[in-house]
Amino acid sequence: MKMELEPLQQSMLDGEHGKATQKAMQILNTLGTIYGAEEMIPVTSVQVAGVSYANLGEAGLQFLSEMADGGGRARVLTTLNPAGMDMENWQALGIPQDFARNQERVLEAFGRMQVITTCSCTPYLFGNTPHFGEHIAWAESSAVCYANAVLGARTNREGGPSALAASLTGFTPAYGMHLEENRRPTLTIEVEAEMPENHHFGALGKCIGEKLEGRGKRPVPYITGIRSASMENLKSFCASIATYGGTALFHIPGITPEAERYAPPDERITIGQAEIDTTIQNINDPAEEVDFVSLGCPHLSIREIARIAELLEGKKVTKEFWITTARPTKQIADRAGYTQVIEEAGAKFAADTCCVVAPIKGRFKTLVTDSAKACYYGCAKNDFKIIFKAFDEVVLEATK
Ligand code: F3S
Questions:
Q1: Residue nearest ligand 1's atom 7 by CA
Q2: pLDDT digit string (tens) for 367-387?
Q3: What does pTM read for this prediction?
Q4: 8 Å CB contact between 328 and 126
Q5: How far is the CA of 201 from the centre of ligand 1 (A)?
Q6: 144: CA distance to ligand 1 center in Å?
Q7: Burial of 7 by CB count in 10 Å (0-12 exposed, 13-18 middle, 19+ buried)?
Q8: C-alpha 8 – ligand 1 centre gap (Å)
Q9: Structural domains of the chain ordered from first start
Q10: Residue in 48, 121, 157 to alter for ligand 1 test, most ligand atoms within 8 A of Cβ
Q11: Residues 201 and 208: beta-carbon distance below 8 Å
Q12: pLDDT of 202-231, one tens digit each?
């Protein structure tokens, strides 16, 4: 079925707004046709993924350069996912110079398109913060899940090119998570477990995600039994359930804003304490000597950085310890004095990047983290052995 395009959208497709806008509208038009969208809708916010040169390579960089040369300009607030390095402090993190040069070329191309070149997977923590019901186009699975479930905004899981296309046109095809009928819960997950820490939420995300795998059309879980969850718990959970189950939306009564619209679906699955504890145990590789510690997947909040500073005050770390966060959050940490305490202990800020998208394969053997998502990719992408612990214990591990 062909999509109905409004005159502005048609003129973009016809090339009246330049080559890059035309290419962008072609991408969206094809996507909309594939997914059976009837129309395009305006978006107010975009998050573009595929920023690390390690993932983009020369072909990806060439695509970005062509879009910038073709006059592509962001029409709505647009931010970026993590890059392959700290854009200011890459030398201290051991990033090779040729990689740094190429990563700078990537950001330069985005900058020419008037994209805000903050590089973070938590754009909702520093101003790219859509409100309830807002239609947006975000890539980065953890942020997509957070936007849909926790903020009640509406976005599909965009790829890098489709998110950029939405930015350059201000539109996205109306299908999937943009439509009310696809946001209804499809099964109930009853949680009977105490979950005080991020890594418990990460383990729960893995448990649920794996149960949802293979169910065809992505289900929307309605999760009961969770009485409280901090923003940090939820960002950890979103990253995990999106990684292990491809989930873009869930509802938790009393916590997420759309839950009250729905009754719990009849089909029920229960997850108990033993399953959470076993999942944590199973993620861990048998006792390995840790040589790499990383917190900040998804990127750390200022509250989490404050806690690291509290735990490291007057201590010295004995291992490479990366603290990954957004540049604006790091700037708050600088002003609050947390950066000084953390750096005096010997830990390193890795703003703009993370332990998954940085080119560090082969540099370390064993990663300790509190993030179930970092465990998945640390193993799958970087061949690390994994130790998965509570946040405070991870910091402690760095000082042993
Ligand atoms: Fe963010 Fe990197 Fe984790 S992009 S969610 S810190 S893998």
A1: 356
A2: 999 999 999 999 999 999 999
A3: 0.97
A4: yes
A5: 16
A6: 12
A7: exposed
A8: 36
A9: 7-180 (3.30.499.10), 184-282 (no CATH), 285-397 (3.30.499.10)
A10: 121
A11: no
A12: 999 999 999 998 787 789 999 999 999 999
